[in-house]
Specification:
By secondary structure, this protein is of the alpha/beta class. The protein contains nine helices and eight strands. 49% of the residues lie in helices and 17% in strands. The strands form two sheets. A five-stranded parallel β-sheet has the order 2-6-1-7-8. Strands 3-4-5 form a three-stranded antiparallel β-sheet, with helices on one face. The relative contact order is 0.22.
Length: 231
């Protein structure tokens, strides 16, 4: 079977990572969560006092970028790779609402994007990769054989994210999550460096009313059609 590159872009909390993991596992592809990389840099900025509600020292973050050591290690139990910062598993730490509140600001910094995009491009050189994020189909893999763009209403996305955080035990409100979702949408679509836009050749998937199984089946069918078209 021909290996392809699958680029999945879309708004926050549209289930990009969930379906990307599923597809990668079925195909035996490498899964890369590009958003986790930006969250890792955000966590680094928070841990080192470079970003807060009142201040964001972009210059200091850019200066220290070479100190941010990111890596992915495959977890046999979970079936996908988890992100590490300086050798420490931070998969749980980067999924908090606090990190979510700042990640779009960090991701808007040109130097941060350039560093991480270079790493992401390297990861996809041999194809057989599923990567999700905001600019995968437009910047990282503009020649990807299959590009998807995930959307859903802000309310639906906030409901899903709220349920996920509550299940983790986080003390948050639905209103705070909805506010975070809408703020991230604005920042992601209005930043100067690689704003969130749908690639011209991307297939839009509105999963507002789709179950996880329905979404998976729909996308897997698109993958099969794309691969068959190359044979």
């Amino acid at each position: 079977m021909n290996k392809i590159t699958i680029a999945i872009d879309g708004y926050s909390s549209t289930g990009k990572s969930t379906v990307a993991k599923q597809i990668a596992k079925v195909l035996g592809y490498v899964y890369v969560d590009s958003g986790a990389m930006y969250r890792a840099v955000t966590l680094y900025a928070l841990q080192n006092g470079l970003i807060s509600e009142d201040d964001f020292n972009k210059e200091a973050l850019v200066y220290q970028l070479d100190k941010v050591k990111l890596s992915f290690e495959f977890n046999d139990v979970l079936g996908y790779a988890e992100v590490y910062l300086d050798g420490e598993n931070i998969e749980h730490d980067i999924r908090t609402l606090e990190v979510s509140s700042y990640v779009s600001k960090v991701a808007a910094v040109a130097d941060v994007r350039q560093k991480l995009v270079a790493i992401q491009k390297k990861m996809g050189e041999d194809k057989g990769v599923v990567m999700d994020g905001r600019d995968i189909g437009t910047v990282v893999f503009p020649n990807a054989e299959l590009k998807l763009f995930m959307i859903a209403s802000a309310e639906k996305r906030a409901e899903r994210r709220y349920a996920e955080l509550k299940e983790r035990g986080d003390d948050i409100t639905y209103e705070a999550v909805l506010k975070n979702v809408t703020e991230r949408d604005y920042i992601d679509t209005h930043r100067e460096e690689s704003p969130l836009v749908k690639a011209k050749d991307a297939i839009e998937i509105d999963n507002s009313d789709l179950t996880l199984d329905e979404q998976f089946d729909k996308i897997l069918q698109l993958v099969k059609m794309t691969v068959e078209g190359l044979e």
